[in-house]
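In the previous lecture we treated proteins in isolation. Real proteins rarely work alone, and many bind small molecules. This record shows how such a complex is specified: first the sequence, then the SMILES for magnesium ion.
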Amino acid sequence: MQQLAVFIAILVGKMDVVAVFNQKGGVGKSTTTVQLADGCSRRGMTVLVIDLDPQSNSSTTLSPTNPKKLNYTAVTLIQRPDIRIDECIYDSIFPGVFILPMVMKMRELEIELWRKDTDLIAMQLAKIKEGTYDIILIDCPPNLGKLTLMALTAATHYLVPVKAGDQYALDGIEDLEATVLEVKRAKNPKLKFIGALLTMFDGRKGVDKVTETRVIETFPGMVFDERLPESVKVKEAIMRRVSVFSEPNTAVAKSVARLSKEFLTKLGYEGFADELETAGNDVE
Ligand SMILES: Nc1ncnc2c1ncn2[C@@H]1O[C@H](COP(=O)(O)OP(=O)(O)OP(=O)(O)O)[C@@H](O)[C@H]1O
Ligand SMILES: [Mg+2]
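The predicted 3D structure, ligand included, written as tokens:
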């Protein structure tokens, strides 16, 4: 506990903003965002999830009520400069995790977005009181449009989930890298790559091993050691609106526990990440 207090004292004011980003659809961005949020909060972090995807997947997963019924969302934030960011943030179904939701109003939003600066989310995050959140995770949409640019402009880091077993998994990586370079040049020179994460991985499948090799070749030294396993338990937990840690001994819960530790260590939270709260069971 004492050790924890020392780390808290050192780290107060540090707020990492990680964009979970890959313009390919269905690679596990929303799943990674939600699971990392849960895992990090169980390691003592206060986490804000910002959903910037009009599909609203992480909002629907995390919000205790239907996000469509919420007054203020990321759409409000984009449309109305008079609204404060904290008015758009809500408790989630996980203690220690908060959600800034997105709702599907893309037609209106697309016109609005033309006129908006890519700094918009960064400017809003600058208004958050120091120490309110330790980690902010941004769930990006599956494209390289304005919302993704806003996320990358606001981020300190970006994480790229890559779906195992997809022969096209790495097609488009040049576009992804070119987008990051452009954002770094124009707006956010400090943006760092935290790593690529293999998702929906099954080491028994030859195709998954092929993707693994290719990802390691593409991102040398920058692939998370942990791979998120393919498991129906992930979908079940989301459908039942519970944490994967409600069954802490499953492969998925153990993987999320290890992944959150690796993630926090990469962000400089060594030691802090050692303890993990689960529903009565300890997972190392
Ligand atoms: N580890 C896993 N095991 C099994 N299924 C998974 C796993 N991770 C994700 N899925 C499933 O794969 C699908 C795509 O995942 P997800 O929605 O996280 O991807 P995404 O990149 O956010 O998609 P989009 O680009 O549409 O936003 C979902 O149906 C999800 O439930
Ligand atoms: Mg998604």
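Summary for your notes: Residues 1-11, 280-284 have pLDDT under 50 and may be disordered. The chain is about 40% helix and 15% strand.
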